[in-house]
Amino acid sequence: MGNAARRWSLRTVSIVSLVILFTLITATSAFADASGQPGGITKEAEDMHQLYLLVLAMALVVFVIVEAALVFVILRYRKKSDQLPEQTHGNNVLEVVWTSIPIIIVLILFVFSFVTLTKVDKEAKPENLTVDVQGFQFQWQFTYRQNDLGPGSDPKATGEVVILGTGKDEPTLVIPVNEPVEFRLHSNDVIHSFYVRDFLYKLDVVPGRDNSFKVTAKEIGTFDGQCAELCGINHSLMRFHLKVVERADFDKFIADQSAGSKKAAAATGK
Predict the structure, then answer these.
(1) Domain of residue 196, CATH code
(2) Containing domain of residue 15, as a range?
(3) In angstroms, rounded to a whole number, what is the distance separating the alpha carbons of residues 207 and 185?
(4) CB 172 within 8 A of CB 163
(5) Long-range contacts: 30-37, Cβ < 8 Å, 24+?
(6) Edge-to-edge order in the sheet of strand 192-196
(7) Distance CA 241, CA 235 (A)
(8) Predicted model pTM
(9) Tell me: the pLDDT tens digits for 198-252?
């Protein structure tokens, strides 16, 4: 191999290595900050986040391979003279390889996506806490039924606890930690969308149709929620807070709200 050929080989390897190194550094930084996506506060969000990381990792691998091959071909087969290069008409092995690889990638993503979807959309059980969510122009109403407050609820209990929000007074939705909670979504006017960023999930609230989903929160704290569907002129007012607490604190919240409702009813004579 002559000096010119050695210099060309060294230059090619150096450039390709720099491209791969830059990609890996970028990928490492992205994974370090949760790949640009929060990890989520529910078991379901954790499953979705793992799927997101899988898709991102596969995309990065494809990107590195394609970009490295592109740089190599540009440098290796750049024009050096007016002489026509050797012509190749088809390669059965290459055609089988570049057809098989996308099929394998799609099959892998399909299998993992189906498994994740099955976990996320698993139906709630009758003993789970149920919260009725009513979307309207332009706020939210959260309703807890006394006979449907999760494990240990009295099936004969009557009454409801209603949390009604306004544009100036954003409502707070309270749920217990480490317990499955089913949200049943209703709308009495237009399409809204129930969205809590830290759920990594949103679901439309459609007039005439009851949608529902289930989550199990793993972290205690207060998180933001909103309507994620443009629903009218005051769409931006449809914000709320989600508060995840221990079961004892949740029971106290329900008791306090129930007592407050009874006092209000007594004061108004209803």
Answers:
(1) 2.60.40.420
(2) 3-77+92-120
(3) 10
(4) yes
(5) 30/56, 31/56, 37/200
(6) 172-176, 239-245, 221-227, 192-196, 201-205
(7) 16
(8) 0.76
(9) 999 899 999 999 999 999 999 999 999 999 999 999 999 999 999 999 999 999 9
